[in-house]
Fold this protein.
Amino acid sequence: ETGVTQTPRHLVMGMTNKKSLKCEQHLGHNAMYWYKQSAKKPLELMFVYNFKEQTENNSVPSRFSPECPNSSHLFLHLHTLQPEDSALYLCASSQDNRVGGYTFGSGTRLTVV
Amino acid sequence: GESVGLHLPTLSVQEGDNSIINCAYSNSASDYFIWYKQESGKGPQFIIDIRSNMDKRQGQRVTVLLNKTVKHLSLQIAATQPGDSAVYFCAETIAAGNKLTFGGGTRVLVKP
């Protein structure tokens, strides 16, 4: 484990379902991130949170809704997803936005059917 | 928009040989670069970084070279081992910010 824990590791959901991805970091970092990793595509930044405040939404569709209740926890709420949303969703954290200090979780493999 | 890209999608290398992974970037304002390694079933792991005021930085069995003139970044792995089999990503950013732009990744396959 890297210190960033993501659950579940795998998720299969229908297009009408509502589910949530969870990320927890035990590193004392104050910035957290959601990335999407699709086959044959670069890692795409979705959201950035600094001290629980969202500082970046990279034009992500509203069917993805992030929540950051505290600096250690980050959620990604999913509803009415499309098959093209199937991907590996990675959470990362860092201290004071220092990108060199990014620590990634192992990701949640999401399949939308 | 500006982006980071990789020249080769797959690199096969004999165990014990050296590996070279290349990356081109287009944002001339980028001044901080990172290489990540992603093994199957895991998230990306930091390997090595370099700032734009440097041309070369060495780690354990890895060396990153930066050529700002042609906006090119490379990762050299010495004496490649089976455990080096993974996808390698370069990423760039402006050090003062926190938004990483990732390249498309190169898969390294180490042949015994």
The longest strand of chain B covers residues 86-93.
